[in-house]
User: Fold this.
Amino acid sequence: MDDRKDEDIVMLILKQRKHDAFGELYDRYKDRVYHKCLSFAKDRDDAQDMLHDIFLKTFSSLSKFSGRSSFSTWLYSITYN
Assistant:
């Protein structure tokens, strides 16, 4: 796994249109987000659907990430909402 900071990856995606770099963020956080979704849904399939929706929303909202908090905090706020 790459040792780049999350925020650097976000900037790479936004400024250089390297959309495939989002996979790195997905790989870093998918397990944590999935387990949180599972705690909400109590069903694996529903949790997997939620995970998918959260990462779609995250990707489509990347331009709104301001850097005032860490990427992980921002992602978790999307997860909780």
About this structure: The chain has one domain: 6-80. The chain has four helices and no strands. The helical segments are 6-16, 22-41, 44-60, 71-80.
